[in-house]
Amino acid sequence: MSRPQEPQRSFFHFGNPFRSPKGSHLPPGLLSLLDKFEKTLSERLQKLVPKDKSDILSLSWMKLAMGSLSEIHRDIKDLITELEIPVTDWDEKWIDVYLDISVKLLDITIAFTSELTRLNQGHLLLQCVLHKLESNSPDQFLRACSSLHSWREQIRSKNPRVETCRPVLDNLVESLDLPKVRNSAKGKVLMHAMYGAKVATTYICSVFAAAFSSSTDNLLDLNSTVPATLPWAQVFYNVQTTVSTEIKNIFSRGEFTVLRELLAVDNWANKLYPLLQDGFSPAQEESFKHSVSELRKTAEELSQGLDNLSKVVDDFFKIVLSGRDALLCNLRAGCASPNSVLGRNTDEQIVR
């Protein structure tokens, strides 16, 4: 998916668009479009601060976060439509920006999909464990113990694809300085909106990378990068502070992962493992049965959560891909349809 390696450079060395108030040279109609986008962005970000901090990094929260990114990127698509900027009028810098960002997002989303697939494959081992535990045979218990050991080793192993996320994240951070737009009020609106979308996307992707790599090394701090004058800035600061603090707290307790459902399964596996390995007395039988029951319950919750998250990650991938392909197709002379590169009507199937 990645393009050939090029020397690292910032595509946004053209100046900072935030040196002057956004509305100083914008007509009322365009200012209204930008205000609408930024208000919606604030609302989408605000939803990522749960009432209970223990919900952060649950798979349902991650589904909400990735779903919010999909909505933000749909909002950008809608804004481009409302601005009525023909692709032939796009500044070459804007196109360079859009294409470069999109290929990085595709790469990092592929890494996330790879990790979700790997974690979901562990469910087969858990199913094998639970199936063997239905028997009262000591021999089957020993086999279940072996399968459980394999699962514990698998979920603690590193995924090479996820390990490549940091350079991509660094590139996205470099790209947060937008090109200075001259002689195009519509272009200024587009660049301001894209800045907000990119900040949200870059930070949330760093949260996913930190969660999947079990390391805060991938967790970005963008507070100093985002100008406080932006209407959505305070909400973003709150999201980043709340989420990043909770992630660091979890790792400070020595946990091997911040994924809540995965931790729940691992906790019950840890209680069950010595009972399978060393055997248990009649007095421990109830504790054994309870552990098996809870392992089955939490394993199903983990599997369902991973499936649901995989779907929204795949949806985000399709949204980014369809936007990129539509732009490339419109740039080609004689292209019959902006979606012909995909071979299907992506506007109808993906972005409604």
UniProtKB/TrEMBL annotation:
Which compartments is it annotated to reside in?
Answer: Membrane
Annotated region Disordered: the residues are 1-20
Where does this protein come from, organism-wise? Gossypium barbadense (Sea Island cotton)
Put simply, this protein is called Protein BPS1, chloroplastic
**Keyword terms:** Membrane, Transmembrane, Transmembrane helix
- Family per UniProt? Belongs to the ROH1 family.
Q: Name one GO cellular component term.
A: membrane
Give the membrane topology, semicolon-separated if more than one.
Single-pass membrane protein
Q: What is the lineage of its organism?
A: Eukaryota, Viridiplantae, Streptophyta, Embryophyta, Tracheophyta
Query: Mainly localized where?
Result: membrane
Query: Would I find Membrane among this entry's keywords?
Result: yes
InterPro entries assigned to the protein according to its UniProt record, in alphabetical order = ROH1-like
Q: Which Pfam families match?
A: ROH1-like
